[in-house]
Amino acid sequence: QVQLVESGGGLVQAGGSLRLSCAASGLTFGNYYMAWYRQSPGKERELVAFISSGRMPNYADSVKGRFTISRDNAKNTVSLQMNSLNPEDTAVYYCAASRYSDLRSKYWGQGTQVTVSS
Questions:
Q1: Pairing state between β 10-13 and 112-117
Q2: Which of 50, 55, 61, 117 has its CB 3.0 to 4.6 Å from that of 35, i.e. a possible disulfide?
Q3: Is 110 helix (H, G, I), strand (E, B) or coil?
Q4: C-alpha closest to that of 85 among 34, 23, 45, 38
């Protein structure tokens, strides 16, 4: 049974930083692309960043230069370092795992709330 458990969300002031982590179990971690998505109220869930098993990262334009995705294949974890946060980053952040580079057929975590106050 695949489990993805996020942690690290919270409340932060604009300009601040947060680090999200996702612990994966029940899968061969190195075979999966790992991704972070987010969803704000009234909006569709959007891809924030993803990383291949070879640690090649990709980012949404809205977070380039501010967010950094990384993974530890030995610990089965993926992290998202978020800097220079602004209120538009407020959302529930979800960890996801997919065997495919187009991120189809994903497993999802339960999500963690990030709130950025102005």
A1: parallel
A2: 50
A3: coil
A4: 38
Give dist(CA 41, CA 45) in Å, integer.
10
Residue 54 pLDDT exceeds 90: no
Give the three-class secondary structure for 96: strand
Q: Smallest Cα–Cα separation from 89: which of 50, 51, 62, 61?
A: 62
CA distances from 115 to 9, 13, 46, 72, 106 (A): 8, 8, 16, 26, 25
- Residue 80 bridge partners (DSSP): 20, 69
In this structure, is the dihedral angle defined by the CA atoms of residues 41, 82, 10 and 50, taken in order, positive or negative? positive
Residue owning tokens 């950025």: 116
Residues 79/19, Cβ–Cβ less than 8 Å: yes
Please state, as a whole number, how many other Cβ atoms lie within 10 Å of the Cβ of residue 11: 12
pLDDT of residue 56: 87
Encoded tokens for 1: 């049974």
Which residue in the block uniquely carries the two structure tokens 């991704």?
35
